[in-house]
User: What shape does this take?
Amino acid sequence: MAVARGQPAGGGMRLLQVAAEIFPWVKTGGLGDVVAALPPALARAGADVRLLLPGYPPLLEALEAARVVASLGSTFGAATVEVRRGRLPGLDLPVYLIDSPFLYDRPGNPYLTPDRGDWPDNPRRFGLLGWVAAHLGSGDVDRDWRADLVHAHDWHAALACAHLALHPGPRPASVFTVHNLAFVGEFDPLQLGELQLPRSTFAPEGLEFHGKGSFMKAGLYYADQLTTVSPTYAHEIQTSAFGCGFEGLLMRRSPVLAGILNGVDTTVWNPATDPHLEARYDSGNLAGKAQVKAALQRSLGLRADPQAMLVGVVTRLAYQKGVDLLVQSMRQLAGERVQLALLGSGDPQIERDLAQLAGELPEAVSVSFGYDDALSHRIIAGADVVAVPSRYEPCGLTQLYGLRYGSAPVVHAVGGLADTVVDASEANLQADRATGFAFVSATEAALHAALHRAQRLHADPPRWRQLMRRAMAQDFSWDEAAARYLALFRAVTGRLAR
Ligand code: ADP
Ligand code: GLC
Assistant: This one.
């Protein structure tokens, strides 16, 4: 599609964004933040953007001006499936929800039972999402609209790419974005029929993966274009260390694999306007940050010590996130006026280890379990550093929030963490480029050394303030990410039209 001078970059391109979560209604991690921010940024750039999500109760309840655009009857194991179109408050674009209480009205989180096991019928629940996406994109669901391009996020939406590739005749292009390669979306090949997929797709040149079907493999194999959420992760996943067994396919597809960094939604994450904080601040007036830190120490029962270096962590508690590396390190650092405020939920063993640490060091370590949006803001803002010791990290958002809030990130230099944090080496400090602390191996010793470096710099207030201001000046804007996606979307629709 040629874009005339002066025309907005989106040029009216019709885009269907397909995903399984969206902040603030349904969120388990960064995907929810991305799906709330990228579509509006694409719309601001002039694209005709619509969203498709499973009809979880909080979304159906919030949907305004809703009307049924299609009744699909009994399908994917559900007695009734309807597609509704409406608007979600605060989101200025049309939203489609798949209304099927049997499939989506469940306790627990979108993917897991209350006992944290996968719902056994997840292949059907997300198979339906991909199937509706392909048909909505092709114009068969809402008679008023069809898409030029369907953008599927993570394995939950990946089957859309398979259905589109198998569609005879003209069809929308497909883009598949990997947010986390480790979740492969496995299913029994006996289910191919109920997922509306031909048996021929169950092949190495198809969606077969180690003798099973895989939603992830379907996305990686069938999409016209692949992206992931940072340039470094785009390279890493072509290696055996990070490729989760997909590295061969990803190497082969590298000409159509791009890395585009996520952004920060500054309507949600901005220390100058954040309603969750006791005081607001910006880089020109940092007094508010000290107040937020003092209030946080007080409310979490930490020692009221303005000079202590407070480490903040907000995370899913999963092996990926490397929180276990922090536990030992904190035992050594607590004697050196380093404190930890951690908010997370997930793996029961990691929770037990953290609870034990907090029991040993009550004035230096606070751990809060569960999901708490307000506390996540107060920790990111009140902390001096935000630690992200992930073993791998496709992009990572909490380090970006840390930068914006003047809370220097301490990160393992992988994936998006490597792309967004500039290490406080002496040379980078001298050149006023440093924004945080990066370490190169996922070991306790390396994390410990990085925290120790942070603590030494923290004890030097003028140099620390310089680091904070440089961090706060970073601009990870969704508008820039949207412009990159749109350039890619134009290239892929152009390729398909030839
Ligand atoms: P991932 O998507 O791998 O979990 P990201 O860093 O991309 O990691 O995004 C995590 C998002 O989830 C951030 O917005 C973070 O603030 C939020 N988050 C993680 N754990 C919690 C929690 N326990 N309570 C509130 N927010 C959380
Ligand atoms: C995934 C990744 C995380 C990324 C997020 C949003 O959950 O683990 O690194 O920031 O998706 O893209």
